[in-house]
Amino acid sequence: NFSKTSRKFSSTSLKNDAFSPLDTFPRRHNGSSDAEIKVMLEAIGVKDMEELVLKAVPANIRSTESLALEEGLTESELMERLKSIVSKNKVYRSYIGMGYTNTIVPSVILRNILESPGWYTQYTPYQPEISQGRLESLLNFQTMVTDLTGMDLANASLLDEGTAAAEAMLISFSARKQKCNTFFVDEKCHPQTIACLKTRSEGFGINVIVGDALKYDFENQHKNDLAGVLVQYPATDGNINDYSDFSAKIHSLGGQVVCATDLMALTLLTPPGEWGADIAVGNSQRFGVPLGYGGPHAAFFSCKDRLKRRMPGRLVGVSRDASGNKAYRLSLQTREQHIRREKATSNICTAQALLANMAAMYAIYHGPEGVTAIARRIHNLTNTLAEEIKQMGYQIKNEAFFDTLNVHIEGGADDIIRKALTVNINFRRVDNNTVGITLDETVKKEDVLDIIQVFSKDSNKKSNLVLPDKPTIPQKFIRTSPYMQHRVFNSYHSETEILRYIYHLQSKDLSLAHSMIPLGSCTMKLNATTEMIPITWPEFANIHPFVPADQAEGYEVIIKELEHDLAVITGFDGISLQPNSGAQGEYTGLRIIRAYHKSRGDDKRNVCLIPVSAHGTNPASAAMAGMEVVPVKCENNGDLDMKDLELKATKYKDKLAAFMVTYPSTFGVFENGVVKACEIIHQNGGQVYMDGANLNAQIGLCTPAGIGADVCHLNLHKTFCIPHGGGGPGVGPVGVKSHLVPFLPGHPIVKTGGDKCIGPVSAAPFGSPDILPISWAYIKMMGSKGLTSATHLALLNANYMAVRLSNHYKILYVNQQGMCAHEFIIDVRPFQKTANIEAIDIAKRLQDYGFHSPTMSWPVANTLMIEPTESESKAELDRFCDAMISIREEIRSIEKGQQPKENNILKNSPHTIEMLTKTTWDKAYSREQAAFPLKYLKTHKFWPSVGRLDDAYGDINLICSCPPVEDYLEN
Amino acid sequence: NFSKTSRKFSSTSLKNDAFSPLDTFPRRHNGSSDAEIKVMLEAIGVKDMEELVLKAVPANIRSTESLALEEGLTESELMERLKSIVSKNKVYRSYIGMGYTNTIVPSVILRNILESPGWYTQYTPYQPEISQGRLESLLNFQTMVTDLTGMDLANASLLDEGTAAAEAMLISFSARKQKCNTFFVDEKCHPQTIACLKTRSEGFGINVIVGDALKYDFENQHKNDLAGVLVQYPATDGNINDYSDFSAKIHSLGGQVVCATDLMALTLLTPPGEWGADIAVGNSQRFGVPLGYGGPHAAFFSCKDRLKRRMPGRLVGVSRDASGNKAYRLSLQTREQHIRREKATSNICTAQALLANMAAMYAIYHGPEGVTAIARRIHNLTNTLAEEIKQMGYQIKNEAFFDTLNVHIEGGADDIIRKALTVNINFRRVDNNTVGITLDETVKKEDVLDIIQVFSKDSNKKSNLVLPDKPTIPQKFIRTSPYMQHRVFNSYHSETEILRYIYHLQSKDLSLAHSMIPLGSCTMKLNATTEMIPITWPEFANIHPFVPADQAEGYEVIIKELEHDLAVITGFDGISLQPNSGAQGEYTGLRIIRAYHKSRGDDKRNVCLIPVSAHGTNPASAAMAGMEVVPVKCENNGDLDMKDLELKATKYKDKLAAFMVTYPSTFGVFENGVVKACEIIHQNGGQVYMDGANLNAQIGLCTPAGIGADVCHLNLHKTFCIPHGGGGPGVGPVGVKSHLVPFLPGHPIVKTGGDKCIGPVSAAPFGSPDILPISWAYIKMMGSKGLTSATHLALLNANYMAVRLSNHYKILYVNQQGMCAHEFIIDVRPFQKTANIEAIDIAKRLQDYGFHSPTMSWPVANTLMIEPTESESKAELDRFCDAMISIREEIRSIEKGQQPKENNILKNSPHTIEMLTKTTWDKAYSREQAAFPLKYLKTHKFWPSVGRLDDAYGDINLICSCPPVEDYLEN
Ligand SMILES: Cc1ncc(COP(=O)(O)O)c(C=O)c1O
Ligand SMILES: Cc1ncc(COP(=O)(O)O)c(C=O)c1O
Ligand SMILES: O=C([O-])O
Prior knowledge:
By secondary structure, the first copy, chain A, is of the alpha/beta class.
């Protein structure tokens, strides 16, 4: 029974039996000591953790058993275990290509970005004044992509090449005013890209035709219903095709030309933007991001100016701050799905910021000359290899190539591939008769000699490798336009310079290394070093996603064990780790539900009930999955309106596909009605989809499956410690009950999913395997007790803060016992009238206090939602509460007329050093009040690097690549 | 001939042959591009690098051959090679003890201090206003040591336990007014400590007696000539002895009691300060610093208040800044050897700051309860093991123990040790009949079972490991006093909290990650990531210094190859890597010279000629080596006064031991007379000792041996890229000509050195092997050409800056062609009269410009010595020159009376944000002028965290541990 579980609340203090090892992890992950916990419990007015849980969590969902997981490992035990697991991975030389190639990650970037908490613990830069560093870096990424693809602008990354192509397909439809139904995909695109595109097309009933684009008779077949085409350049077989006339033809039919491409090749080839493509997509992985068995890497998306307002994902733009200084920000926020909801054309939210930053830094470190030299060398080696292979009597199928050869070996592909494996080399098996070889920057002369040896019948063949002097890239493809001419790509080529640039940017950005980031719904908890260390081990980092299974046995252990542990934690029967973000998880889950209904002949079930309080990705994902969204009301107290739910469920009885619910609710409350709600849905033939964003409040106390959900996505980047990386990477696995297991997503190259699987939702079979060890390690080190203690503390911390702040602010939405779950909302709407103050003013003023704002105006406009997580200490919670209380007093001084309604300490916030050191000071408050309103700030101040952003200016004057040099301050 | 060498100037640009790999290193290490180099050459007025070298370096010393080293490896080739080398090391479980034990390095500390350029690239905190972070951290170290040893104060680290004991011995002599000659060492001290102490005693003719301290008849034997005693607590055999009565006896004889001890044991044992010891020394390695085959680790030194002004090494103290705020600084700077010269009682300069910081953070992360729990667990395991071993019929020789057992096995020690090796376990071989076993925090129950198995005759022996309930630490030894009660040790026990604390401290400190640190004579060049990555690989990190040679074969390769390469670079015939700092290298070299003379019967040769311009460690080291220092004059132009040299050399003909010379000179000039000077010395029977601090100007152009030196120390922490770590670690190898090779230092445990070796100068046989891969990697990646190009650029950069600054400042000391070497001095003495401005004012004002000051007032009072190194880019050199020129204009405004002679922009510098945001502003200049005198500062400002330090206050009110909590600002 429950009280047994609860009595197991594991203290954060040291074990003291005589021999047990002491480097236990839960006391490092959790923020407070036993003594502090006691004080917080007292403040809330409960006698122990058990009482807190009893009051916060409804009885009918509480688990009666503790989690059936192993005891937590200590940090050093974990490292030992992981080393033995990773040693099962075999790092071969992979020439498989298909959008993934080996790369040399510059050590200085590896260590100071990918391995640096100052970068990886950042949140998405929604607070631009304390995020100028990564905004600049993402703008560099956009500029690099724009330049290399020859387009007008690019976004700040997408999840992978496959889904980026799918996004491009959808834009082709939205861009065509006329209704149309067909999208054409060239058969020489990467197979996983074609598969992702097909998956996405299904929700919309799009007719995807796969064929030979250059031969297809578009004029006669699709005069009026062609939205666009996708071609790959260079193609998956390595060939470089001329699509200029083709593009003109497609345009004349009203379609868009989407080009999947390769940034490295584009340093040498005429970019798609110059031969007529409208959109370019691809993977930036080979710009210094480890393979990681498939991810995470940053996909890119660039397009022509006229498509810019349709572009999916985040877009950094140049604007100005309150003093008129240049400042960066996320542009066109109105496009984001949390505003557009079911009208959104994309559900992308978390993307791949950290990896985009790495790729941008790679470009900056090498500069245009450097990357061109790398590309040229790769091409030289490929060219030389081609010549040698031809001399041995083989035919190279693709005439024009950059780095990839398709070698014809009548009936002999498998033999060659087997022979290659004996010398630790992986080729691509294209078909019975064809072997693919893709070279990359890590390839050395000796590697090429080894490849030649595989093809040679003479086992002692010697070769000199002479560069053939006949050109292989036809003149018409040779790039003539310059790229990466901006100063940022031409200044930091020594290690000292790039190190300082990385540090300079980092110094502008607030991260978890500075102070708590209490973003409701985002769960900004500790990303522990021991969890992070393994991801850059070469045995994890340097594995191609399509290697034979026996080379990835270490990964298999991690994947299997993580799936198992997540199933235990959620109560589900099957897990897929393929989705790369929460929103992708939603999409996957809904597609699984659709497939399930269809498998039972329930084709009509396409209505999705979604509470009005839901996160914007919910309706957006439902729309992507081809569902009709029907909103469900909420009560004034935030609870689901059960009457309305019942009404809608019955009304759409025959069409009801799913109900999406977040639990605890997006308002931060364990609602009583949740079990009932699930019953209603099931009674009406629907399936229950749970948005697992708030799982951090459930672990060990209840389970999504136990509550009644059929599917749920988890956010490993929230609940399970994958860092947010400034806006990605993420992993959004789905868990499902047994009846849905057969439908888990498949993959065209590596078998995944069930026997009635839906198509792949990510380009790589297991999504982003390289970061799975993080979540795996977290679960292993916390163990059953540790995980439950974290949940306890998440609840305790939120309720403690709510109690402290309730004397100063109105707390919205608590349950009947007055308890919130792991987060809570404070209402600042009254201040609009009393002091002309809005949530944004408080958010910006919090920066002056050294804090990142809580979630602003979601789920309720003009409120702030606070989620402390278990990792914050009581001292930090108090510091934040002190700041909020101090701000309340500042608001009071406006209410009292001691400060004007404009030009006051909140409206002018955040205050930069530049503002505060101006000779003239004409404010109703002092410089010291502005800068150091509380004593701790004298020693612990974090300074915003620009003043408040001018959002309107930036959206009107959209500039999404590095501003011209003249705009920069001298040096 | 030379021009051949010079034409080989290797461009920093990309190679462009078709296939060669592109991740070459020299262009990353060197700061400027070919185009920038061209501009700089033009500015200097030379047509190419060759002409520059011809003008700067005297013809008679220039090498005619290029360096006989391998071609440079690329970064990825280096990594591959190093991985294959390190795989030769075997990581066994080492229970050897002797002051070195395995430890669990908390990942968060490993990654965010040891692996963080923000920490490891810092310089010694001589500029306190931009070093408050590491000063606070070192103060934490001092406080921890003070508390645990029960002393009144502690310093900020020494090089190792052996030399710390030697320093303590010397203080015992200086503290005793009466002349005396004897120092007694208990035979149960670690053998390497005894050996280091003996080495050090020889220079002074100290009579060191080794014996059983508790049985020795001091009263009758040494009534009047006993300076002190050294005991070990717990002793090297693990026994805990009661020294309270003994201490009283020694005190009554006027001697000091020095106690070598173990911080971990002291959490449980009555600390030496409480039973009467006057000085405590030891190694803090087991507080979370990797073994690293012997180093680097931080030794500690603490003592009673009355000895404080005799304490060697750096001492952090609490003082206040210009606004009266609490601020930390290095105290008692007047004690530093650059002031006391030959009257110094120690030559310690570079110490072990980075490792001291790690140890302090370990203590902070665990807190007093945590470290006590660790100690108790180690003791429990040892206690249990002892019981099991006894039950098997063996005798434990030491009755009272903490973590170490000496097991008696009549004639069977070797058998047991062999058996242990078969299961990857190392014990200590004490003698034929005795095996030593020391446990540590990494030991698990299973490890203890494995140990038991080794001793068991029954190969299937099972044991339950029951903790015996009889106490093994006698009551009188049980510690009752509290320790580490300060808030800093009781606040940061969660990973989030310690991470923020580490970042908070780091954010106050300027490092190479921010801007150039142009310290003359310190060579603050790039510490490249690829060089740094290997040092935390477990196969380097986790090796005990006294393992059998076959477990350290990877290290052997590194050591041999590095010795070889350094010999090639310097022209010497033998190298010892044992000395842990430049000063230790000097000491070693001089001791070798003495031994050489003695071996030829030249006992009387003990005069050391040292130019007045020499670094303070030179005379201090000579004094340590028991030499008589005779100064040699310099000319007005900075050159050696050859007449005076000849005079002194002839005068002391019969007593002449050595001449110490720095080359290029400490004034930054390649002096013409150097060859002649060496000849004069040799003619008079002396040996030439070269201080290699300035070797960065020589590599590839000339060699110390070629110039005429017999011995030279190198600073791997200057010329060869080991980072300064905020004041250490360092490595100061010596190179010698063949006649001196037999005298290279030996070691009592592991064979090193020649057949007439002097005693060890460090506790570990190879000094600090864990950081040798850094220098090894640097040389391997640069190769012959790369190393020479670095020297070229070091000369170019210095001469370029000198030319730019010469229009604004007087440049002291250039050669007849107007050239400096790799550094130069600017004279600011005239401003004393014209504007009341001193070097220190310029140094502090430079902080406002975001720069660390050049070397101040050395070698010439009231001047600044600038050394840019090859790693700085032209852009950075220009930025620094712009700052210096702008400051010159500020001085002019004082000269012109536009600003007062006090309370002006220089005197008030550095300006903190707190100063600049005060409501009242009563200066003759604006806030903006103070903060942003140049435009780049608007975006690239580094802020000092306190105002100018009040040095006098701090020396008078010496406080050297964390100030009481009340003094802290409310957090
Ligand atoms: C409730 C909820 N659902 C879905 C999402 C989307 O997750 P992701 O950003 O991983 O796509 C979020 C993100 O914050 C969320 O809070
Ligand atoms: C010329 C010279 N000699 C000796 C030393 C002492 O070296 P270390 O600090 O490594 O002991 C220095 C240090 O800066 C120096 O500049
Ligand atoms: O004392 C010096 O390090 O120069």
